[in-house]
Every structure is written in C-alpha cells, then in structure tokens.
Amino acid sequence: MKYGNPGAKVRVPATAFMKKTVISILVATAMATSSLHVQAMNDSTNPVLAPSGLPYNVLPFDKITAADLEAAVKEGIEYQNKAIASIVNQRSIPTFENTIAALDRSSWELNRAVLALSNLEGACGDEAYQQAMQNVTPLISEHSANILLNEKLFEKIKQVYDNRDKEEGLTPEEKRLITETYTSFADNGAALKGEDREKYRKLTAELSDLNLKFSQNVTNGMKDKARRMFITEEQTSGLPESIKAAAKAEADEAFAKEGKTNDQGLYLITVFAPSYGPFMKYADNRELREKLYRLYGSRNMAGEYSNIEILKDIANVRLEIAKLLGHKNFAEYQLGHTMAANPATVMEFLGNLKDNYTEPMRKEIEEVQAFARQTEGPDFVLMPWDYSYWYDKLKNEKYAFNDEDMKPYFELNNTIDGVFGLATKLYGYKFKRNKSIPTYHPDAEAFEVYDKDGNILGVLYTDFYYRPGKGSGAWMTEFNTETKDDEGNRNVPVISIVMNFSKPVGNDPVLLTPSEVETFLHEFGHALHGLSSQAKYGSLSGTNVYHDFVELFSQFNENYLTEQKFLDTFAKHYKTGKKMPKDLIDKFVTASQFGAAYRCMRQLGFGYIDMAYHTIEDPLRASQDIAVFEGEAMEPVKIFDMVDGCLTSPQFGHIFSGGYAAGYYGYKWAESLDADAFAAFQENGIFDKKTADKFHKMLESGGTVDPMELYVEFRGKKPTVDALLKRDGIVK
C-alpha cells in the first residue's frame, strides 16, 4: 500500500476492503502460514516467491529483475486460483475458518509480487518495471473480477455471513472480517446477475487500465525535458546557496548524460519537488517564476502524456459502475465504507471549513499583496506564482523568521535520530540499522524495529534522496503485511518510506527545511501504523483502515515539529552542536499559523474538485471543457483566478490513479482528528505515557475495530474541528 502527503505520488492502497480498487481482494491477504502457501514457496524457483534465506524473508533485490516480478504475479494468480478452487469445491459447511480465513490467506504469493513490482516501479522509475506493470495490470484486473464475480465463492461467503451470529468461538476481529469480506464482495458486484456481472467485469478492467495510464502519464510528464529550465548565474538571484548547488549538480549531470560538459555553468530547475518549491519561494525573477508555474500547471494537458480524455473516461466509468450497483453517483457508492458515510457529510464538513477559513484567507492575501506593493508599486496584482515568494518575505519581516534559518539544525542524520526517537519516547521502540538486509537501491537503508520489550516489530526501509525517474513527493508503502498464524506467531511487516530530499553535494551535509522534516514525520507516522499492527488477518492489518481514518496517524506526528521538548532531542546546529534557540522555535510556532487559512483553502479546492468529479449523475461529455468544469467546482473556495493553460485535474493522481477518489477530503478530516488527538497530549504532556498508551492502541488495532469506536475510546468523545481552528489561529 502507498500513502503519501498532499502533493505526493500515491498508489492505490493494497487493501482487501479499500472499496472499488482494481486489485482490492487479491493484494491484502495474510502472510499466515498454510500448507498450500508453504508448498508454493518450496516449489517456486522464482526469487520473488522462493524462500530468500534473508532475515525476515525480505526480498533479495539484487537477484530480482522486472521479468521475475512479472512472472511472480502470474505464478501468484495460479496459486490463488488453486486456493479458491479448494474453498469452492469443499463439501464441508462453510465456516469462518474454511472460507473467510482461507480466502484472506489465499494470495500471499500474489501480494508479495504485486507490492514489490508496484513499489519498485514508483521508487526506481525504471522503464522495465513500468512495462512489467503495464503487462500484468490487465491480468490482475481480470483475476480480481474473476474472484469478485465467482458466484459459488460468494454463496459460501454469504452463508458464513448469514450465520455469523450462530458460529461459536469467533473473536471480535473474526466477526469484523466476516462482515467486511461480505460487504466488499457485495460492493464489488458479487450480487449482480447475468449481463450485469459481465458488464461490471469489463468496466473494472477498463478502469484499471485507465488508472495505470493516468499514473504513468503523470510520471512521464514530470520527466519530460520540456518541463525544465536551464538558467544562468544571474537568474539564480534569491536562491539559497544549497539550492543553487543542487541545481548546478543536476545541470552537470544532465549535460554528462548527453556526453557534454556544462561549460556555461548553467543551473537546472525542474518541476520536481526539491527544485520547484524552493524556486517558487526564493527566486527573485518573476518572469521565471511564472514560466516554471506554467510548466508545472500545464502538465498532462496535451501531447503524448495528455490525461484530459483519460480523466473523463475514468469519471464516467466510475459513474457507470456506481449506477450498476444501485447508487446515483460514485461518491455515494465510495463513501459507504468510511467514517463520513455519505457525500452530504463530506460537503457539510468541507463547507464548515470554508465558512471558517474564507475571510481569514482573504485577509492573508490582501496583506501579502499590500506588502508586495511596497516594492512593486500600487498597481501590482498578486498572482499564483507570486504568493510563495512574497508570503515568505512578509513572514520573514513580520516574524523575523525564514525556513533557511532552521535548516542548519535539521541535518539529516540528526533528524533521523530525532524522528525515530519520537517513537522511542512515545512507545519505547528501538531502531537498529542492519546492513545485511539488501535494499532495492544504493540510496536506501534497512532498519530492524523493536518494541519496548525487545521483540521484533518489523523492518523499515528508508529511501530519502531525489533521483531522476523516481516518483515525485513522498510516500509510505509496504512489501509485507503484518499477520499472525493460528498459534499467534507474528509475521513481521516490511515497510518503506520514500522521500525526495536533495542529495548531498560534495562533503556538504544534507540540511532539511522544516517542511521536509514535517514530510518525514508524516510518512514515519504511516510507517508506525504498519509496523505497530497486531492484527491476525492481513485484510485488517496496519493501514488497512477506513480511508478517512488512515491519515490521522501520519498527521498526528506533524504536531511535534513545533514542540520545543521534541526539537531539543535532536535539532542541533550541524557546526556548533548547539540546540535550536527558543526564540527561533517561538518564531516558527507563530509563523506556522501565518498562511494557515490559505493552506486550508488550497486543500479545500482539491477536495471540491474531487467531489465534483465523483458526484456527477450524468456522464461527462466528450466535448466537456475540463477548464470550465474545474473552475465551477473550485469557485466556492477560489483563491486566485484560474490561469489560462493550467489545470489541476490532468495531474491529480490522488483521485484519478491513487485510491483517493471521493476521498481527498480525508486529509482535512484527518487533520481535524489529529488536532483533536494532539490536544489530549497537550493537556497531559506531549510525551505522557498514559496518553501515548491509549493512542498506541489505535495504532496497533488496524482495521479490527470501527475507527470511531477506537477514537472515542482514546479521547472520551467524538472529534470536533475546534482544536484545528485553535491550532491554525482562526479562533483564539
């Protein structure tokens, strides 16, 4: 599964009950040992599936090729088909163990292969992995449809579901798995008959193909040479030296790849995160900021990597699937298995935030524009490519704070110790680097993670540096899902967190911005969710929870970035060793509220776009102007007028290929949860053991308990937005 921060590249989470995903049933299965699984491993000669002989049976990346991964997917499909045939053909009365548990355990091989291929495609960006993914996606889609539309299998699942209250000895987790399995099948067409079943099969296969095309177009569009600028020394005015050094190194590398030398001393600026963000914030040249903004915002709108027609097809196919299953729109269909439950609740939630943040956002924009006019003149009109630049300068003047002032205190190795140390302080976890565990790239490292009693929790891969071809943004993923066998033996999870920090230049240390540290904390929160899991069944393990609950654990961690007691544990100047000064932390805390309304409204804009595409009740027309559609969707939360030739929709991988369809609101939903949850720590102490233990119970429960029930047990009440409004300075 892959979960990322806003703006990150995110894939469809590999969970059995993340509704409506193409590979939903087949890639969230347990690693629990079964005789069939053991036999499959022993029989296989594929290095992806055969016992690796490595610690925790991690993948032997140095022995695996894209062809091996493709073959392993096909082999995994065969193994699961045999397992399902055994379930369907058994003469015994269907029970939890011989039907539901057997299904949950049926695709260990396929799970291992699909997760590995998907993860390596994103982290490595290799064309061979991309091609392998293209080759297997239709096979996976067809296989998933075959399972979901297997009438005999569904009949047995339904028998177990109908008799769930009569079967003795079931644990609460097992009862929940029965309900979730039945619901997942029913929501994915299992109850359809005749022609409708075949229609559903074709639609899901089509959607799978469209999702993959959209995702790969976004990736390839980022790599397009047209999406970069070579600039001169003079044009770097305003850029910090560290950013210039990285841009110079990237230009040198680009020339070297073409067998040339960078004789003119040019700098390379791209639309990738470590280049784009700092340039928009610091570059004095307004014309170049506008040029880069347009290069970024016009991606996937035309040419070889256009997503315009693809996104229409995705929205229309989703609508057709929803109607086939008795719903009036896709959002109604998708939200039935979330904390929000329905589109009306989502729109009410987004509207509540809109009402609270609109006026503060307007005042922020007016203040930034007035500040810019002191330099640019009374007729200056603030544009989207100006906001980050002038916002940063105003923040520096108003609060005497600059992100660059904090970077010397966020040296990467110290920051790793600090972020890992947060889990030590809260939960007693320990992290031990293990160089004997192979990684998929020289940049990646492997850590063993132990709980407070010294028991192994799992393996964590870290992959911090940007490299050409690597997916943009940041994300958490897994290679193996945590489960337990019938004797209670735990199969440890293997988790990965992927970033795009700038690589060190020469002997200079890697210094992170506060935003990059926040991203690290975010993805580490997802990793802890996966590592902490104590579920028995893979379908309910770790991050396999409701979509609008999963971001709580990542965004919760971000709160610590403004806490001095946390920063004092690691934030030391890389030259002097001195702790970060209290006045700098105080300025950062105060400055963090500045622009909060703008940031919220920006996120609401994404949420409104998402809901607009997924609440349509009639198909988008071939002639539909997406610019008009997007503009109308964002009008209630508009910050700037739309820029001609720039759109969000064609590059919006979260909702068109990343599993967040009708779910992008979940970021703000989880933000209200995390603010409310952290308020409990503020009330009792940010490292308070009793509070941390209660929070840890949510971490380790995965999807075994209803999330609202878990949250109310932790907090003693249902969440509200009050803590979020206070944290953002909207209310005092």
Please characterize this protein's 3D structure.
The strands form 3 sheets. The chain has a 6-stranded mixed sheet with strand order 1-7-10-6-5-4. It is built from 28 helices and 10 strands. The protein is of the alpha+beta class and 732 residues long. The chain has helices spanning 35-43, 66-89, 96-104, 108-124, 127-148, 151-162, 172-187, 194-223, 241-257, 273-282, 286-297, 308-324, 330-334, 343-376, 384-399, 403-406, 412-427, 514-532, 552-558, 564-567, 582-593, 596-614, 626-634, 653-656, 666-684, 689-701, 707-715, 722-727, and strands at 2-4, 228-231, 267-270, 430-433, 445-450, 456-465, 475-480, 483-484, 490-491, 494-501. A hairpin with a 5-residue loop joins strand 5 (445-450) and strand 6 (456-465). The longest helix has 34 residues, at 343-376. Helix 2 packs antiparallel against helix 4, helix 14 (343-376) packs across helix 22 (596-614) and helix 22 (596-614) packs across helix 23.
